[in-house]
Design a protein that fits this description.
Helices cover 10% and strands 63% of the residues. The protein has 73 residues and is mainly beta. The protein has one domain. A hairpin with a 2-residue loop joins strand 5 and strand 6. The radius of gyration is 11 Å and the shape is globular.
Amino acid sequence: MNEQITLKGVEVWAYIVEQESGYRVRLSLDDWERCQLGRGERIPLRRHQRPIEYLFLAEAVEMPPVAWFNLEA
């Protein structure tokens, strides 16, 4: 589902798929670089009308013009 989220304090539009262990997320490559996310980093995620979740960046793949990554609990 496409929605506006906040990653590390940066508001972005993302496509999010909920998985058993967390989320699979797609961002534009520009937003990916703006968020400065690093593998293994603990990242605060805020989704619309939900409490902040703290997840780890488990895997990331850049496929211009987008980046796909997994956030896991």
